[in-house]
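Supplementary Text 2. Reproducibility record for the structural model of the 1038-residue chain.

All settings were left at their defaults, and a single model was retained for analysis rather than an ensemble. We include the record here because the model underlies the residue-level annotations in Supplementary Table 4.
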Amino acid sequence: MSTKVGSKPAKSWYSRVASFNVESLFSQKRQPGPPRTIYVNENIPEHHFDRKGKPKPEFVFTSNQVITSKYTIITFLPRNLLEQFRRIANLFFLTISILQFFPKFATISPAVVILPLIIILGITALKDGYEDIKRHESDKRINHSTVKVLAGGEWKNTNIMQGKSKTFVRGLTRPLRRKSNQASADDAHAGYDSDAEYEEGFVDDAEKQKGIRPHWQRVLWEDLKVGDFVKIMDNEPIPADIMICATSEDDDVAFVETKNLDGETNLKSRHGVASLAHLRDAVSCSTSENSFRINCDRPDVDMYRLQANVKVSGDSSPIDLSVTLLRGTVLRNTRWAIGVVMFTGLDTKIVMNSGGTPSKRSKVERQMNPQVIVNLLVLAAMATVCAIADSLLEVKYFPLNAPWLYGATLSDDNPRINGLITWVFSLLTFQTIVPISLYVSIEFVRTCQAAFIYFDGDICYEKTGQATICRSWNLSDDLGQIEYIFSDKTGTLTQNSMVFRQCSVGGRAYRGDEDMEDGVASSEVLPPKPVSTDSVIDIAPMEVSVDLWAAQQSSGSNLTHGKPQHHLSQNQLKSAEKKKAEEPRVRFRDASLTQDLEDSVTADLNSENATHARLLNGFFTVLALCHTVVTSVDPLTGEIQYKSQSPDEAALVQAAADVGFVFCGRDKDILSIRTPSSTPDVEKYELLNILEFTSARKRMSVVLRKLGDDGRLFMLSKGADNIIFQRLKSSEQELMDETEVHLNEFANSGLRTLTLAYKVISDLRHLLQPESDYFDWNKRYHEASLALDDREGKVEAVCSDLEQDLRLLGATAIEDRLQDGVPETIADLKRAGIRIWVATGDKLETAIAIGRSTNLIANDSNIIIIRGGVEGRSVHQQMVYAIDKFFADVPGDLPRPSTSSREANIPLQRIQTNNSIVGAGNGDRPGGFVLVVDGAALLDAFEEENSQALLLRLATMCEGVICCRVSPLQKALIVRLVKDGLGVMTLAIGDGANDVSMIQAADVGVGISGEEGLQAVNSSDYAIGQVGPNARLVWWLD
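Retained model, structure tokens:
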């Protein structure tokens, strides 16, 4: 018993030493700053300063300089040496070398002894320095990018900023570049910038030279300050987290590309703060009359949440992500956007989510330390035996006047001290038991491996010519030892390219023709013939090619920056032709749907087809109008193209256009759609409210007023089936049952599903509820959107009041295309015995569908589902039941939760999951098991160590694990759970900023560059172009 007790402190001591983090000595973890108030065109209050007139630390904002490198010119030598001397062998060789400098112990020249150690340290330092110089160069490219900032006139930014840090590469800057930067700084100091942008009418060169007129002046990103007015131009990256004041577009809308954040290439819309819409030029921004304050919550890592408000003339307006441009995004399809900087540098969301650059060590290196310690103990034992033997012999033979002990009467030469000297000589004699040549060989082999990986054509992404880049050379020997792979889904396993495949309308399923091909469909349209229905508008039967110029003349809507083909240059035409050839579009076609649409156009109001005609009419109306899609122009054909915040929306709107409902564009709050029944005119709707989709709501709705006729108010909704079904009228039960059967078929085919519904809010013809009820609701909705406390909860409660008593229309099924070779790669990895975990933010049903299409879930696999928030069943109880049910013959005791978290006297029962999700015969199939767990269940499981251990045990019994609805932090926690709990080698792969924490937590992190963002690549150990062709990397050293 005493042995066990004594071994625990020793083991704990070694664990603390082995897990020592060098980073903690040179960079302390920075805590998020306090809530802040930003003063624009105002002086800072006196209470921001102490009695000596110095600003208080809590009111000083961090600079916009971002440094991802590990070393500086000062810290390089000590930090790198500390990292290298984490190797016990290096400490031993250093000790041996130091002993050689004493003449008493010198066997050969000390320089010869220390030379191998210097070579090893030097080569490793050069390799680490080269890798870090690349990081510095990347930092410099980003920090030295330029942005237009307000200058001149009365403008003065009074907010206080921290100073910038000096980095390693500043001393390596090219002289010409340094001279250019100095010239720019001199110009800026003189108040004149050759690239400055002055407003029209300010043509006085003398005023420009003096810089007294307000203007936009380009400055470096690292010089940007909180409270600065910035003007972002089209296709420019966003340098900080910025609140939008005004844009060049109608309604102050801006469109951003977020692929550097989440790997998604689709555009997302943002809009300006209405109370600041008048700040559209340098003059209006610089005048003291336009003063305001921005109150922000403390910086937060949550990339989907922002709490702030702006006070203008005593009135407050809410600030959330819809009016914010986050650092890392790119402005698209917007000529310019003016905003105010709220968060800079380390306080921006993308930087807070990325974390510091870790110093990773390979498994071989970590295992060598205890093995070297064992060798040193053997060496010490041998030296001790020799020293004791020598000391005993000298003590015995010295009185006998042994000739070899003649004169051994000195202080440093006598029988009692010679034993210690013999011990040192024994260390020098037997030092080869720890071969220094081993480390030289390891460093050489790793360097060669990095070169072989780079030049290996089999793991090169052919589409872009992207070779696999080894960013951390010391991890090459870990590739062949990977046991668990953690992968993101969107952009990693899938292309994030959606194709409309099937739909269910009014209980009828339309599964598409098998011969659907890429290309432009027929432009033939039925002649107009209106049908009077209780729904919204009529339907055309066939797919169409949307003619831009006709639609533009009919609707008057402003399509974004379109150019007819004859105005394009040859290079632009070639680029557009190449892009169109590489990305063919699949048109949705279904013969039975075409026939039903034809019948719906000619259906009589009293006929049997009238009901289905209304459902078809309403179904495709929702697809054409319930969205936030942006229209643009194909430069080759002049057709309308759809760009949206999510690829699902673009696919749905395009499917509506394929069957005849063409969304022509948006002119302020007027939406225009063209149908065969309205040609050549268009139907117009006034957009009153957008109830946006969130992960909590799982639905989106729009409130519209149909212009002309009777001006009825409609609410069109789309969302997850379980959410929409809860809000249907009781009379919709029969249609809901029929639609649910089709939804299950779609999901089992690996397709993503959405359910569509609508509601007539006000109809004067049928004396439904008056519009005054809507106005009362709209007032409550506006008040909820301005709330600072629990804004999301209050908005959801108000939206839920209106989203009731819906009428079901049908459901859609969209295919999320996989990356090339993904199913084959996963199948090969599974055959190699490698466990695969997929982490995604999608809903559970979609995650299972992707699991089936990627071969992670085979046809004979059994599925275990663990959900959080199940009434009457805790997550721990669900896991216990799953193990008792499916793995009863596996030995081992189950960890039990503490009494504080257990519900007493709750009998075990089968988890009520939809049988169609897991399929018939689940649990009895010959294949293995796949665990599917959602983010809410993970949140509960990570609260207690017992639940973590149980989750880990259940997961290891399964062939694969799919985690859905997970946050970036949960991804990292999952990796650490397996890595630390099982002591196995892990690899994480992703392509967006939301994957950075997972990549850094794994033993080996792989970032996908290709066509997606570079945030994951900059934090990875290996950069590849695509998952499919690069499975060879995983077993490269096997």
